[in-house]
Amino acid sequence: MSIITLTTDYGIKDHFVASVKGAVLTAIPHAQIVDISHCIDLYNIANASYVLLGAYKNFPANSVHMVLVEAEMYDQTSFLLIKLNNQYILTANNGTLSLLASENENAEIIELDIPNSCANTQSLYIFVANKVINENKFAELGTAIKYADCEELVELKVKVADDENAIRGSIIYEDHYGNAVTNITKELFEKIRNNRKFVINASRYKAYRINEFYADFNTEVKSIREYEGDMMFIFNDLDFLQMSIYKSNPSTIGNVKSLFGLTYRDAIIIEFID
């Protein structure tokens, strides 16, 4: 079985997704195509990187993951084939890699040669996927480069104060439930925290604790239903700090954006107290 996944901002209204799938199946008839998402915010590389991060490791080894977000051939200077965690990722060299891997991870990266026969990104990805799946090609498809040579997405970088008394992150993704996911990982938080107390600053709002689980509230004070609509922070299933509204619903209770006015790229600052 040859699995190819698609992560795009094409939406589901138009013909674009079907066109890509048809071209893939024409070139690789035995491929099984899996949609990761076609609802990435338009041109939003951080969104695409986060969504792919949440999915790709669960696929069988040697699956090929195509990222078609901000990936027009004539807008981008180069394209990458990345081998990471026994998976292959095809993406423009536009910063997508920033969230998927760190410099310390064992990612093999090829800057792709673009054959004259490939007139657009779709045809390039299909050409490369065919070589990987049917001919087991990798290094021959371009030039090996280092992680540091790849484009970096600035908004995915977390800043730690020189005195390590604060972490400045930002919202990088809003999920289906209206949760605001930040780029602050649990690993970094615990490393800098060093068992200290802390305060999380989200615009003019403050929080002094992080829930261990979604419904982690003091039910001795009031019933769990009475917490509906309360703001909370939690490390989500990918271990990123997430701002949530308990039992959020845009049409009733509201969500982070509607209640607090916080959205993509807004700052989240954690201050540590000795």
Defining key terms:
274 residues, alpha+beta, Rossmann fold, Elongation Factor Tu (Ef-tu), domain 3, 2 domains, 7-stranded mixed sheet, 6 helices, 31% strand
For the record, the CATH class of the largest domain is Alpha Beta
Here the CATH topology of the largest domain equals Rossmann fold
- Flag low-confidence runs: none
Distance between the termini: 55 Å
Which architecture name of the largest domain does CATH use? 3-Layer(aba) Sandwich
- Classified in CATH, the superfamily of the largest domain is S-adenosyl-l-methionine hydroxide adenosyltransferase, N-terminal
Instruction: Report the structural category.
Output: alpha+beta
How many separate helices?
Answer: 6
SSE topology string: EHEHEEEHEHEEEEHEEEEHE
Number of strands: 15
Quick one: biggest sheet? 8 strands, antiparallel
Binned, the helix content reads 10-25%
Q: Output the radius of gyration.
A: 21 Å
The pLDDT mean sits at: 94
Strand content: 25-35%
Tell me the overall shape: globular
Write a structural description.
With 274 residues, the protein is α+β, with helices and mostly antiparallel strands. It folds into two domains: 2-149, Rossmann fold, CATH 3.40.50.10790; 159-273, Bacterial fluorinating enzyme like (Elongation Factor Tu (Ef-tu), domain 3), CATH 2.40.30.90. The protein has six helices and 15 strands. The chain has helices spanning 16-27, 45-55, 97-100, 121-135, 186-193, 256-260; strands spanning 2-8, 31-37, 64-68, 79-84, 87-92, 108-112, 142-145, 159-160, 166-174, 180-185, 197-202, 205-207, 231-235, 240-245, 267-273. The strands form two sheets. Strands 8, 9, 10, 11, 12, 13, 14 and 15 form an eight-stranded antiparallel beta sheet that branches. A seven-stranded mixed beta sheet has the order 2-1-3-5-4-6-7. A hairpin with a 5-residue loop joins strand 8 and strand 9 (166-174). Helix 1 (16-27) runs parallel beside helix 4. It is globular.
